[in-house]
Structure formats: C-alpha cells, structure tokens
Amino acid sequence: MNQNIRRETWTKTSVYHQTLFKMLVILLVGTLVLSLQPINSLIGSIRQAEYISKRNDLNGSNILEISSAIVELVERKRKNNNQDKPSLNHTLTLQMQPVSTVQPNFELELELVLNATSNLLSNVHNGAWMGLPPFDQSMTATRLLVGMEMISEILAEVTNRQQSIMKSTPEIEGLNINIINVTETELQVQQSSITFNVPDLHLEISFEDVKRRASKSGLGRTAFIQYKNIEKWLKSNATSENESYVGPSIITKVFSASIFPRKEHLTKLNSSIRFTLLHKFSPLNSSDVSCVFWNFSADDFVGHWSDEGCKVISTNDHNTTCECDHLTHFAVLMSSTDKKISPEDEFALQIITYIGCAISIVCLALALFTFCFFRNLQCDRNTIHKNLVFSLLVAQLIFVFGINQYDDKVWAKFSKQCPI
Length: 420
What we know:
Blueprint: H1 2-52, H2 60-82, H3 88-96, H4 99-120, H5 126-130, H6 134-158, E1 163-167, E2 172-181, H7 185-190, E3 193-198, E4 201-206, H8 207-212, E5 219-227, E6 249-250, E7 255-260, E8 273-278, E9 289-296, E10 303-306, E11 310-315, E12 319-324, E13 329-334, H9 343-373, H10 380-402, H11 409-417
Antiparallel strand pairs: 1-2, 2-5, 3-4, 4-8, 5-7, 6-13, 7-13, 8-12, 9-10, 9-13, 11-12
Helix pairs in contact: 1-2, 1-3, 1-4, 2-4, 2-6, 4-6, 9-10
C-alpha cells in the first residue's frame, strides 16, 4: 500500500518536473528567438513590402499602406544607424556576422526598397493610383521620393571606401551613389565637376561643393536618382477637398540630386548645379517652360512645384538646360496658366471693354425708351421685352461701375450675394 502511494507520488513528481522542464525550455527558446528576431526583422518587413507590391490586384488603399510602410521602415533603419551607441541587437548582429557581410545587408535593403518603389510606380498599378484623390496621389508619390532618398543616404554613409554604386529598375532608370576621396591631389586637379549621365539626363555638380560637405575622413558622397513616370502623380497644390485636378504639365522625367552628409549651415551651393533634361513632348511655347523642384513639407508630405532658385539657361523643342542653387527633386514644367498681361495689353483690353459696354448701354437705353414712350407698341409681349431690356441695362451698369471694385469689401460682399 505504501509502495503504491510512493510510486504514485514519484510518478506525479516526475511528470511535474518534466512539465516544468519543458516550460523552462520553451521559455528560454522563446526568449532567444525574441532577442534574435530584430536582427532580420527589418529586412523581413522590407522584403514583405516588396513582395506585396508585385501583386496585380492592388487598390488605392494598398498603395497608401505600402508607401507608408516603406518610409517607416527606412526611417527606423536610419535612426538605428544614427545612434551614438549601438543597441544590444545591433551589437549582437555585428558579433555574429563577419565584417564583410554587414555591407551586403545594406545593399540588400536598398535592392528591396528599390524594387518595392519601382513596383508601385509600374503602369500595372495605374488603376490603383487613379482610384486615389489627387491629394493622396501627391502625398504617396512624395513618400516614395523620401524613402528612396533616405535609403540612398544610408547606403552612402555606411560605405567607407571610394567606390561607385549603380542600380536600375524599369521605373527607376538610374540610381548612382558616388563615394570619392576629395583629398586626393590628382582628383582635385583633374575634376572640376562631377557628372551623372543616364538616358534623358545630363547633370553636372561642382567638385568644390562636394568637397565642402565631405566627412572628416575626406570622403565626399553624392547620390543621383532618376524616375521614369513618377511626375504624373506629383500634383502641385492639390488639396484634400479637390476630387478633380487641373494643373501645370511636367514635360520631363523627375530626378533627385543629393550630397551627403547633410550640413544644415550649407543650404545653398557655391556653384549652381547644371542639368539638361530631354522633353517627353515638345512645349507649345518656349516662354512657357520653367525649371522647377518639388517643394514639400516633411511633416505631411504635401508639396508643390516651385521655381525658386532655378532658372532656364536654354531650351528648344527637344531639351531644356537649367541651373539651380540647391539640391532636391527637379523637373521641367510647362505652364499654361497664370499668364501675366503686360500693362499696354491690359490698358487696350480696358478701352475695348468700356467702349463695348458703352455701346451696349446706349442701345439698351434707346430700346427701353422706345418700349416705354411709343403708345402704338404697348402690348403684353413688349411689356416682357421692356422688363428684359431694363434688367440687361441694370446688369451692364453694375458691371461697368464694379469692374475695378474687386478690392472694395462692401462691393465684393454685395456682388457675392447678388451674382450677375
């Protein structure tokens, strides 16, 4: 009896110990997995975004979500790289991997972001983009520009030797990251500018500006990116209330130019950047062409095309050469609105308007006099004509006296309440 009780007690104790041991093993394994997970979680997340972007059944919401995810993931990566003290996970990554394998990870992340961005900009997803309001189209395209610029900055800053990295996809026709040693005497003598050549674009940037922004180690880093079709989604001054959009036409491809590391006190270039862009279609008039950049807010990604700091050097039916005193995302714009009328033409239009209105007022006044004072014409039909003529006469008088009163608050309030 006692032996059975002891055996039963021992069995229960053994089962309890085994269960406890299994739970302990599971807890230790789970802890280890959780501690190692952040090592590859970023690459895994970017890989997942790149995989989803390949699908052909994406809608507008998917485009928004994937673009937001790309920027968030790249921002996390940049913050990790900018930390003064590496985190435990980052330290563990460096300890577990040889030094030579850390660099390819950055290139893998660049490749995944590049592919995901290119997939979203593919013509396959035009229907999904068109399903978004113009405001969301512009905001999403700006996110993709920012994501590409950040990932190129990360790769440029972690590369600690002189080299050139070139990537391309169907929608991102050229990504070129140049790391040069600006302290080499031969290079300073031979090279007055750094050039970037891809189809439809020739770019020159001053070597002195790269040298001025070089790191303490003497390495100057530049990045150039050219996009194939992103300009059609960058809607200038689009608002969340606008369902339809009519704006200026971009007649070239969009490209970005950057120098790393960024220095806040060096906002402008010593020598203007010069670039020549091939037109996608010929402008109607050479005077309509402007060199512009995409000016956006980093807080909400809302932007517009601006020509501040840029000027046209030359233009023809095939290409335009521009100069700008800063670096960002550039293109050539053909404006068909906001034309300024010369003072001479404006004066001539005023004279024509007043003469035409005066003739109209005189004729209406004669017609009203005829209908009112000729008794043989008094009938119901002419009474209707008399009221119509009187209304047109009053409208013409209000128009003539109010044509230049748009700055008067009282008149503007009256005309708004009683539109003609």
